[in-house]
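Anyone? Bumping this.
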Amino acid sequence: MSNHKHSAPLSDMVLRVKALESLLVEKGLVDPAAVDALVEAYETKIGPRNGAKVVARAWTDPAFKARLLKDGTAAIAELGFTGLQGEDILVVENTPNLHNLVVCTLCSCYPWSVLGLPPTWYKSPPYRARAVRDPRGVLREFGVELGADVEVRVWDSTAELRYIVLPERPAGSEGLSEDTLAALVTRDAMIGVAKVPTPRERVA
Amino acid sequence: MPVLTAAMVPLLVTKGRSARRDDAVPARFKPGDQIVAKVMSPLTHTRLPRYVRGRRGVIERDHGVFVFPDTNALFAGPHPQHVYNVRFSARELWGPEGAATDAIYIDLWDSYLDRA
Amino acid sequence: MNGIHDMGGMDGFGPIEREADEPVFHEPWEGRIFALNMAAGALGKWNLDRARYMREQSDPVEYLTLGYYEGWVLRLEAMGVEFGLFTREELERKRTALAAAEKS
């Protein structure tokens, strides 16, 4: 089934994009340097490393964590992460008894300012259709098996709030520095489809 | 609006464009209220997904006031109103195939909701 | 609208296909069309809700079979015409000219 291919471009896709850009630039409606700057920003500056720093800070600074869970947007802004598709953020916390999972069933809403642009699977019909209907099956597919006693909360971010999961701090990470902890945190854990690997799993 | 220049990109990217408004619109619901999502099928844009229409949920939190996309998409005005996070149990949405412990939380505009 | 985009709860799409170490953009044109959509949107002729509505009006078969950014190409072409940024004919002429230039 080819319904969620990311890039099997129509043979003329490159040409069509070139035509669009060149026409818009000719008409003075688009500055190609702005296009360059946008691509560069999302390719190099804005990505899941931002979110990982937020998580690591929350794990090491209880006062920050309290602020983060109370007003995610403001607490994340303390670390300098603000902006497009992160204007209003809610942070939801995983615990041993509670697992959170984020999806956008209607389109592809995602907290760009902390996670960057979403991976293709997040935007694909299989994930969007199934995350709300069979979250435990989706999680199993990602290798996360939850006990029947664990509550699953699926956050369908179809409105203006963007969601990020504060994952559980892994066992064996006591005493690690904030930077080392941030390096353990994965994008998928902040979407809620994975757990953060323990330092030992990370090495293995 | 002026053409976006490279110099404007950092501001656009880091400031964003919140749909939040500070209009003093009264909230019809408060956390804990029981609601039912309306059954409606506009031919135009809406953020009320089919899978919650007609289903009963509970207001989890009030996010404040936001532009209403259904009218904004048609250039028919921002109609700012409260957006609430609403909890629907998996059983309410999917019947016996839903896990008894699980729930779906979704943000819905005031216009989409009736008191249950 | 009760479109194909509103897919929460549907069955039958198969497993979730993931790509290890996925790049932000797979090809340069994906980055260009992403940024062109943002730059054109910044002109203020339409808003993000309208852009979403436009995407929802895609042909359902296309919506499911085209790649994500391919959908964005079709959308910007359609919105540019609808909101008077350019005409369909200008776009065709530009494509023909670029294709010819590439061949020569």
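Late reply, but here is one note on the structure posted above: The interface with chain A takes residues 3-6, 8-10, 12-20, 47, 49, 51, 63, 66-67, 83, 85, 90, 93-94, 97, 99, 101-109 of chain B (CB under 8 Å).
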